[in-house]
Write a structure and sequence with these properties.
Blueprint: H1 2-22, H2 25-55, H3 58-80, H4 87-95, H5 97-115
Length: about 120
């Protein structure tokens, strides 16, 4: 999970930087806000599930899910009111997590192929 989150931070930084340079700064901010919202969501999900599996409490799982979405709803509601907010680039920032997941899948498949001794990976 750490590798996916770190790669997502790199995708977020690079994407927002390129968008700010080639389009407008406020669109880069919107992209960064969207990608940080999804980063926060997955970070809270990882922490929550580690606590759930450690203590095996169903009530903890339900409360984490409820509070996570309440907190994310408040954050998104606050971001939407900002003057520099652009919905399209915010949605692209949220969707940028797919790039991190693809990176993780490719990296893990290459890593497992190298462990098996398959030299004809690429």
């Amino acid at each position: 999970m750490k590798k996916v989150l770190i790669s997502h931070l790199l995708v977020s930084a690079l994407g927002s930087f390129l968008i700010a340079i080639f389009t407008a700064a406020h669109q880069g901010y919107s992209f960064l806000a969207g990608s940080l919202v999804i980063f926060l969501s997955f970070l809270m999900l990882g922490i929550g599930f580690s606590l759930i599996f450690e203590k095996k409490l169903i009530a903890l799982a339900i409360s984490i899910i409820v509070f996570k979405y309440a907190i994310l709803g408040i954050i998104i509601f606050t971001i939407v009111k900002l003057p520099w907010f652009t919905p399209l680039w915010f949605a692209m920032g949220v969707a940028s997590f797919v790039l991190s997941a693809i990176y993780f899948a490719i990296d893990e498949s290459l890593r497992s192929a190298l462990k098996e001794g398959n030299d004809n990976v690429i």
